[in-house]
Amino acid sequence: MASLNRILLKTVDVLASFFLAAIVLLVFLAALSRWFNYPLIWSVDTAQLLFGWLCFFGADAAMRHNSHIGMDVLVRLLPQGAQRGIRMLLMLFAMFFLGIIAVYGFILCYHNYERLFNTIPVSYSWATLSVPVGCLLMLRTMVEQFLGEYANDSGTEGGTNPCC
């Protein structure tokens, strides 16, 4: 199971890197071709499609590395046990929220299956699918961090410090 998880995370990171490079290349080529009066009209839609996926893959990577912004000025004044309790409670709220967004994201994908991008013959569902897939990736990360925090709270080793 751990190796499957490692493969998933490596795949997501490689895809995010590829999407970023593709977006930069597309935007550069589009600007260059426009300068020569041969615009690549499909480049904007393709970049938009890749950008949605890049954002959610990046959000999951930031969550895995505890790089999301947080407000912890007041929480740091509390005892360590209270800080851990607040972190765990906030993680539960975030997991609930991510689950709701994932469900509604799949509903949005279903409603967008007939809608096509303007310049490429691709269903807009591929763009909106980034929302529930990204939320499920972040939910997986958050569950892993919550279990690590819970194990750390129980006095065992292996806990992480996911936020705050």
Question: Your description of this structure?
Answer:
This protein has 164 residues and is mainly α. The protein has one domain (2-153). It is built from 5 helices and no strands. The chain has helices at residues 2-35, 42-64, 80-111, 125-128, 130-153. α1 packs antiparallel against α2 (42-64) and α2 runs parallel beside α5. Residues 156-160 have low confidence and may be disordered.
Question: Per the principal axes of the C-alpha atoms, what is the gross shape?
Answer: elongated
Task: Let me know the average pLDDT.
Answer: 90
Strand segment count: 0
In terms of DSSP E residues, the strand content is under 5%
Separation, N- and C-terminal Cα atoms: 29 Å
Describe the biggest sheet?
none
Which segments are poorly predicted (pLDDT under 50) over 5 or more consecutive residues?
A: 156-160
Q: Sketch the topology as an H/E string, one letter per element.
A: HHHHH
Helix count, per DSSP? 5
Number of domains: 1
Radius of gyration: 20 Å
Secondary structure category: mainly alpha
Helix share of residues?
over 70%
Topology:
Elements: H1 2-35, H2 42-64, H3 80-111, H4 125-128, H5 130-153
Briefly characterize the structure.
With 164 residues, the protein is mainly alpha-helical.
Features:
5 helices, single chain, 164 residues, elongated
